[in-house]
Design brief:
Elements lengths: L6 E2 L17 E8 L4 E2 L4 E12 L4 E10 L18 E8 L11 E3 L4 E4 L10 H6 L1 E11 L2 E11 L12 E4 L2 E2 L9 E5 L5 E5 L5 E5 L3 E6 L8 E3 L4 E2 L11 E6 L5 E5 L1
Length: about 270
């Protein structure tokens, strides 16, 4: 079973089961971006940023962070750092008003909100298989908006692979060509991408397997509907309503299967 690096606890923004994505409204976190998703033990990852939407809002939001070795979330462990005596606490601020385009959309990428240093001893007691496939270090974000508590986490993976994962790339297409206007009814949207990487994975029997990432796209719009709120790269989704005369924004959030994250917007 494959797991996305990002899990939102109070805001559904993605998963391998392709749950429905709602239209942008109010405050939402669309993802957490870091320059690196795979690193060597002891590495510091700076400039971790939050991709948010606060349609109709525009405000300053403060929150807290806690970082620790992954307790085994992919295996069903709770998302917390209670197990790690060396957990690191922090705080951060997001000003959603700085990303306003027009019409109170307040949607975009924050400035840097965190940095983490993966423990140099994170491989202590780990098997060679774990060291290759990766040991996770997580940073949990918690904050309040509109009377609700939101939490999200980002996993940075320590691995001894020589070639580390990089964030996926792509082009936003409208009816098969580079997008030049917002979509109208029956228009087809897609992300053209050839950035899927191959990597080595060690199976439980010790054999090595070469795997290729699947690039997934989550679509977000502040107006209208799409017939597929989630697609794979190079797969189309159809816009189902007439184009609005009011301002609206369109986001394609791109993820690979190893924590890589990027986005395209129009």
């Amino acid at each position: 079973m494959k797991y996305l690096i990002l899990l939102l606890l109070c805001v559904s923004c993605g998963g391998s089961d392709f749950k429905k994505i709602e239209r942008l409204k109010g405050f939402r976190i669309l993802g957490i971006q870091s320059p690196q998703s795979e690193v060597d033990p002891g590495a510091t990852v700076n400039n971790i940023r939050v991709l948010f939407s606060d349609v109709g809002g525009g405000r300053a939001i403060s929150g807290t962070t806690v970082s620790c070795i992954d307790p085994g979330i992919a295996l069903g462990a709770k998302v917390n750092c209670d197990h790690d005596p060396n957990r690191v606490n922090g705080t951060y601020n997001i000003n959603t008003q700085t990303e306003d385009e027009t019409g109170g959309l307040f949607t975009g990428l924050s400035t840097s909100v965190a940095s983490v240093t993966v423990p140099a001893q994170i491989f202590l007691g780990r098997s060679s298989r774990e060291q290759l496939n990766g040991v996770g270090y997580i940073i949990i974000f918690t904050f309040e908006a509109d009377g609700k508590t939101f939490s999200a986490f980002k996993r940075i993976v320590a691995t001894n692979r020589v070639l580390k994962n990089t964030n996926p790339t792509g082009q936003l297409l409208l009816n098969g060509v580079n997008i030049a206007s917002l979509p109208d009814k029956d228009d087809k949207l897609s992300v053209s991408s050839s950035s899927a990487e191959t990597y080595q994975y060690e199976n439980v029997d010790g054999s090595l397997e070469t795997r290729t990432e699947e690039i997934q796209v989550a679509w977000y719009i502040s107006y209208g509907k799409l017939n597929k709120p989630k697609t794979f790269a190079n797969e189309e989704t159809e816009f189902l309503e007439d184009r609005s005369s009011a301002p609206f924004t369109l986001f394609a959030v791109i993820r690979d299967e190893r924590g890589g994250f990027s986005y395209l917007r129009y």
